[in-house]
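README: folding subset

This subset contains proteins for which both the sequence and a predicted C-alpha cell string are available. Records are stored as plain text. Below is the entry for Beta-galactosidase (552 residues), shown exactly as it appears on disk.
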Amino acid sequence: MDKWLLDREWGYLESAIGNSTLIQMSRDWKPVNLPHDISLEKERKKENPSGFEEGFTSGASLYYKKELIIEKEMKNKTFTLEFEGIMGICSIIINNNVVAKHVNGYTSFLVDASDHLLIGEKNVILVHVENTHKPSSRWYAGTGIYRHVWLHVGEQVHVKPWDCKAHVTSFEDHIAHLQVNTTVTNNLHSNEKASVIISVLSQEDEVIAEETKDIVLNSNNKLVVTTDFELSSFTYWELEQPYLYTIQARVIRNGVDDEIHSTTTGIREISFDAKDGFKLNGKSLKLKGGCIHHDHGPLGSASYDRAEERRVELLKASGFNAIRLAHNPHAPALLDACDKLGMLVINEAFDSWVAGRKSFDYHLFFEKYWEEDLESFVNRDFNHPSIIMWSTGNEVEERNGSSNGYEWSQRLADKVRELDSSRAVTASACSLMSEYANMTTIVDGNIILNMLGNNVDPENDIWGEATENYFAPVDAAGYNYKVKRYKYDATRFPDRVIYGSETYPHNLFENWEETEKNPNVIGDFVWTAIDYLGEAWTWTSKCWGFEYVSRW
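--- output ---
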C-alpha cells in the first residue's frame, strides 16, 4: 500500500456535537497542521475539574476538518485511514456519514474509507473529539488529534497496515528461524489467484532471502500466508548495533505487481529466568531503565517525530538501556527511534481495568473495548525489536483480587500470548491500602501513601499473599517501590522474575545495589527518567490519625 501523510491543512473549531452539515459550513474554522493539542492553548485554572494531576488544564469539545480530493486515477483502489492517536472520545465522519467511533485516546485505529470517499470530487473528513469530561487521567493527557494521520491506498487485493508480522521462532546452530505471517485481503466479489513474494532485505537493501507462494483467495475474504526462512548469515539487533531488516510483501495478480507492503524488524533473542536473569542474544543484561509519560513538556502531548527521537537520544546518552512506557501505548515514532538507536522497551497497555482511578478514565469502557484495544496495541507494534515485554496493567486497583482482578490478569495475559507468544507478559503492582492498617508513624513524610509499605513482615505478608494470583499469569512481575522485597521474594517465590517497574531516584544507589546482587531481579526503572506534565502539588492530609505532606 502507498502511505500518504495527511497532517497538513486541517481546520478546527470548538463546538459540542451537532449537525455535521451545518458544522462544516461554519466560517469559524482555524487553520492547523497536525499533530495538535488544544489543551496547550487554554488557560490553566485552579478551579478546573481536571485538578492537579492533569495540571489544572482544560479539555475541549471540538471538530477537525480535512478536505481531500481523490484523483480519478485512484478509482478501484482501497482506502484505509490510520489515526495514530486522538485524545478524547471521537467520531470519524466522512461526507456526512459517521463511519467510526473510538474511545481510547492512546491506541491507534484503522478506518476502512473505501466505500465513503468520492473519486474525482472533494471529500470532507470531520473528526469530532469530546474531552470535556474531567477528571479523566492521573497525568496530563492533552486533547485533540495529537499524533499523525495517514491514508493507506492499495489495490482490491492487498495487505492492510499491521498485517505483515515477522518474528524469530528459534535459534539453532547459528541459524535464525524467521517466520513471516502475511494476511492478504481480497475485497473483490470473485475468487482470485495471486502470488505472494516475501523478501528479507538487509540494512543495505540487499535481498538475503526470498520465497514465492501461489494462493487462491475466496471472494471478500482474507488468507494468512506463512513463510519460514532459515537465515544462516545474519546480524543481531544489539543495543550498540541496532541492525534492522526490511520485510517486503509483494502481491502479483494477473502478471502485474499489484501491491507492495514493507515493514522493518530486527533479529534478536530474549529470555527471562529467575536464576539466570534477562538475556539479550544469549548475554546477561541488567535493565537500566526509566519510566516516561507520552507528553513533551512545553509541546504538550503533540507527538513530533524529532521530539520522540531526541528523547531516546537523551536517555541513551544518560546511560539508560531500557524505558517503560507509562502507562499506555505511545507514538509509533518513539518505537521507531528505539529500534533505530538501540533502546529496550516495556510497552504498557492500561492504567486501569474495571475499577476506575479517576471518574472519567478508561474504566468506563474497559469491559467493552479491552480486547479490541489489546489487538491494535500488539498488532501495530508487533515488529519492533526494541519491545521485550507487553504490560497488561499498571498498579490497577484489582491487583488484590477485587473486581475479579485475578481472572482479569489471566484473561489479559492469555490474549496477549494469543497475539504474540515471542515476548514476555508483565504487569506491575504497588502497595495495598490494607498494608497500612497497623501503621502509626511515617518515616518519610514526603512519600505519599500509595507508595508506602516498602517492607516485609514474614509473619503477616499481606502484599505477597494478596498479589500472588495477580502475578501468577505473567512472565515477569513489576514491583513499584518494593525494593526491600527482592531478597525475601527470591525465597518465597523462587520462580518469579522481578524488576523494579518504578523506584525512587533519591534511592537510586540502593535500588541498583539490590538489583545487581539479586539474580531474580532483571532491572530497575526509575520514576521518572524525564519530567512530565501533571501530578504536581503540595498539600497536607490527615489519615488514620497521622499527618503527612506530599510535594511533587
